[in-house]
């Protein structure tokens, strides 16, 4: 029997690897899921008089995309968000994170804005409240203001289909 | 056209690999000489076609053909030429092409240097390597074609990862892959022996030089990777127990065990099943490393872009190759008769103990590497296992192996005498223990880890010297000692140097993280570091802030160091280029952190004093040279002539 041991050990490893292929080690579960979205009030980029607060979105399912003009992956994600804004399944708010060079307004002017509002988180404090570790990160927040989903990294059409759409359907958006 | 040509010749190579992996094996089974004779030409043809494919890809990189997706993703028009060539293997697809190129190279080498081997053995070995090649070429063509076009072409590339733009990275991957893939030869020999049932001393003698050369390349590859990490990551560390590093370290540990076990099988005919299992393990771990790095099952600092389809393909391939070889092993192992009985205290016993320890160490690295995956797969949460685990487990496991390393080469085969050995080694033991106890006291007081490290380093070094002295006392001259003996002694000495270096740097390094304005200074290990500010310096594909730091001692300026902070144009990535003043006894290492104010006058600066860190890489070089020396021993060439002239069949003792 002894001679079968190496094979058995290997079989167990393969089973774990097969399972591991469908897990994402980079995805750390957010402690905010199922909790109310942290409140804030911030000025909106490009609209001098307006401020934005999550309370404004009460009663709607909405998506908050944390981005920054200096972030390269956000540019990669931008066309995907633009396409989404066109088909309008859900309003997207773009939290402009730590934009020290004040480039957001010009950039959105030039390439188009997928956002219904762009709250300006200059010192990054709101980002900290939401546990942002790097841009882009995207949240789904439901009618009652509860965070339902958090996605780290750029959104591509596939992740939108497989991750966001089922969640949005479940929430009735 | 060139990329299409590359794609096309890769398909031809696959067809040749399929022929090479089937017909010679059938021929060997049926005793058909014509089919067996196909092994060599198909192997050589395959190498030529893969080399052409590789050349095509390198050409596409060199001429900035951004209509090739792989080039557009991994190169950049401003990238210096030398990095454009190395970018060929900087991506997942390109590095895989390098993998199959190396495999084809090793197979070709086997086909050339195997004149003295029986035809059926050659046919089986080359056939098995052909099967491995089929798997990798299919993987390349089906999931990771490096020649895919991008329509419309990109106006410019996205640039090579700036971390890889370093000359250490130019040679690190080829050396590492030479080692990884080289274990395929030992694997193929083991499979061939299992199929034919001829597991004898001749089999061990044939596999030995191949294994040793592969191991030497792997050692060089790992050492270069570590040296690169030291200079390029800007943290001053040389080993991070990152999954990618562990992926290369595990086959190294198994390969080290294999080299020693092969010695016993060749000389004494013992441990046959164990040696075969190790040969299978070493290559399996190389494949496992490939899987871990490319499938995305583990999170790592320098993993390749991950993709579950690719992961599923490699996992399937892994299951077939490793699973199949282990089934063959379980089926055939009972037929292996173990010869050469030995006493519990003998060179065989020491080597067996060394093997068990090396495998235990490998197991502990494997467990630590895969633990996060196990926990996640079982739904027990996400965790990461870091250096504290590895250092706590690995060091105590390896210490006894280092101690045995001193005794093994001096113990007699079959039956050694403990009192005799004690008489020969008592002075070495006393001096080693004294060094371990006293040396830390002269530095900064008693420290158990430093004591252990110094004692072991001194012990290995002294026993190596005793080995030389005993040979000389028996009338041998240094120059006439066999190369195998020199190789072993060099390698063991290298390990002693490495252990000494690690002990010193781990226990006595100093570092300081300071905010520095122009004119500020900080003192570390008796040196004064004065910050003279930064200047803008444009590079070929980056902009850099170049700092100037004067190092002085006792008011006298000794060196001027220029660490850089670079921003790469295409990716916008920031990179730290540390400035290091190397010397045999200590490195002064300076890295720029972040600018701390708007005008970039004040910077966060990291300063390290690293005593004897270079001994680590010098030690590794000793290991490499030792490996090559041992593999070039006369015995392997003489054995050739002996086999050709059946009259002199006496085994060569070295």
Helix content of chain A: 25-40%
Task: Pick out the low-confidence regions of chain B.
Answer: 641-654
Mean pLDDT of chain B: 87
Strand order of the largest sheet of chain A: 5-4-3-6-7
The averaged pLDDT of chain A comes out at: 84
Which structural class fits the helix and strand makeup of chain A?
A: alpha/beta
Strand proportion of chain B: 5-15%
Number of strands of chain A: 7
Assign an overall shape of chain B. Answer: globular
Rg calc of chain B: 26 Å
Largest sheet of chain B: 6 strands, antiparallel
Say which CATH homologous superfamily of chain A is assigned. Answer: Glutaredoxin
Major sheet size, sense and barrel closure of chain A: 5 strands, mixed
Distance between the termini of chain B: 55 Å
How large a portion of the residues of chain A is in β-strands, by DSSP E? Answer: 15-25%
Tally the helices of chain A.
5
Chains forming the largest contact? A-B, 24 and 34 residues
Shape of chain A: elongated
Query: How far is the N terminus from the C terminus of chain A?
Result: 59 Å
């Amino acid at each position: 029997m002894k001679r079968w041991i190496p094979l058995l050990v290997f079989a167990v490893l393969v089973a774990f690897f097969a399972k591991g292929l469908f897990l994402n080690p980079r995805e750390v579960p957010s402690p905010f899921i199922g909790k109310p979205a942290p409140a804030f009030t911030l000025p909106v980029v490009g609209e001098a008089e307006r401020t934005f607060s999550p309370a404004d979105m009460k009663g709607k399912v909405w998506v908050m995309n944390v981005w920054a003009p200096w972030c390269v992956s956000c540019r990669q994600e931008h066309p995907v968000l633009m396409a989404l804004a066109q088909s309008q399944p859900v309003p997207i708010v773009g939290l402009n994170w730590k934009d020290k060079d004040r480039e957001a307004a010009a950039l959105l002017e030039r390439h188009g804005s997928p956002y219904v509002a762009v709250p300006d988180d200059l010192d990054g404090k709101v980002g900290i409240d939401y546990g942002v570790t790097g841009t882009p990160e995207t949240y789904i927040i439901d009618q009652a203001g509860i965070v339902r989903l958090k996605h780290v990294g750029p959104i591509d059409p596939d992740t939108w289909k497989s991750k966001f759409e089922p969640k949005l359907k479940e929430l009735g958006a | 056209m060139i990329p299409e040509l590359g794609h096309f010749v890769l398909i031809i190579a696959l067809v040749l690999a399929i022929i090479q992996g089937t017909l010679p094996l059938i021929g060997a089974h049926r005793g058909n000489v014509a089919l067996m004779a196909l092994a060599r030409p198909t192997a050589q043809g395959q190498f030529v076609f893969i080399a052409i494919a590789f050349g095509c890809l390198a050409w596409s990189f060199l001429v900035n053909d951004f209509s090739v997706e792989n080039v557009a993703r991994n190169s950049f028009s401003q990238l210096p030429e030398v990095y454009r060539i190395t970018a060929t293997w900087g991506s997942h697809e390109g590095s895989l092409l390098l993998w199959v190129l190396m495999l084809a190279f090793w197979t070709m080498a086997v086909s050339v240097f195997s004149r003295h081997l029986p035809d059926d053995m050659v046919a089986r070995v080359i056939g098995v390597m052909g099967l491995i090649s089929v798997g990798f070429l299919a993987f390349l063509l089906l999931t990771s074609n490096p020649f895919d076009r991008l329509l419309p072409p990109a106006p410019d590339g996205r640039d090579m990862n700036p971390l890889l733009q370093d000359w250490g990275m130019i040679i690190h991957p080829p050396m590492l892959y030479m080692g990884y893939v080289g274990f395929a030869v030992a694997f193929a020999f083991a499979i061939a022996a299992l199929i034919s049932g001829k597991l004898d001393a001749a089999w061990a003698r044939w596999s030995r030089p191949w294994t040793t050369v592969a191991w030497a390349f792997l050692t060089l590859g790992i050492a270069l990777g570590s040296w690169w990490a030291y200079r390029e990551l800007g943290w001053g560390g040389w080993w991070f127990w990152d999954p990618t590093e562990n992926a290369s370290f595990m086959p190294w540990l198994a390969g080290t065990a294999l080299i020693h076990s092969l010695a016993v099988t060749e000389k004494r005919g013992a441990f046959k099943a164990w040696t075969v299992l190790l040969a299978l393990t070493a290559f399996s771990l190389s494949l496992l490393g490939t899987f871990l790095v490319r499938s995305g099952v583990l999170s790592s600092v320098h993993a390749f872009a991950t993709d579950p389809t690719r992961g599923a393909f490699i996992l399937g391939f892994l299951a077939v190759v490793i699973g199949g070889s282990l089934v063959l092993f379980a089926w055939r192992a009972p037929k292996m008769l173990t010869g050469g009985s030995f006493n519990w205290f003998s060179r065989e016993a020491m080597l067996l103990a060394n093997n068990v320890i090396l495998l235990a160490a490998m197991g502990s690295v494997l467990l630590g590497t895969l633990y996060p995956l196990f926990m996640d797969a079982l739904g027990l949460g996400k965790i990461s296992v870091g250096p504290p685990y590895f250092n706590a487990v690995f060091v105590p496991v390896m210490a006894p192996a280092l101690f045995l390393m001193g005794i093994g080469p001096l113990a007699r085969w079959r039956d050694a005498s403990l009192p005799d050995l004690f008489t020969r080694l008592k002075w070495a033991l006393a001096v080693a223990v004294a060094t371990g106890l006293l040396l830390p006291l002269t530095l900064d007081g008693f420290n158990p880890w430093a004591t252990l490290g110094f004692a072991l380093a001194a012990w290995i070094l002294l026993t190596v010297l005793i080995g030389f002295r005993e040979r000389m006392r028996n009338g041998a001259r240094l120059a006439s000692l066999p190369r195998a003996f020199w190789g072993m002694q060099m390698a063991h000495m290298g390990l002693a140097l490495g252990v000494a270096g690690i002990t010193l740097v781990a226990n006595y390094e100093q570092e300081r993280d300071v905010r520095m304005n122009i004119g500020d200074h900080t003192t570390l290990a008796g040196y004064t570091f004065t910050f003279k500010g930064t200047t803008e310096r444009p590079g070929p594909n980056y902009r850099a802030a170049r700092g100037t730091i004067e190092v002085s001692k006792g008011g006298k300026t000794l060196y001027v160091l220029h660490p850089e902070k670079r921003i790469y144009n295409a990716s916008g990535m920031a990179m730290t280029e540390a400035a290091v003043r190397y010397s045999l006894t200590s490195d002064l290492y300076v890295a720029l952190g972040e600018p701390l104010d708007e005008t970039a006058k004040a910077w966060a600066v990291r300063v390290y004093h690293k005593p004897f860190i270079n001994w680590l890489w010098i030690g590794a070089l000793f290991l490499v040279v030792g490996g090559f020396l041992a593999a070039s021993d006369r015995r392997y060439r003489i054995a050739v002539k002996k086999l050709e002239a059946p009259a002199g069949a006496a085994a060569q003792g070295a």
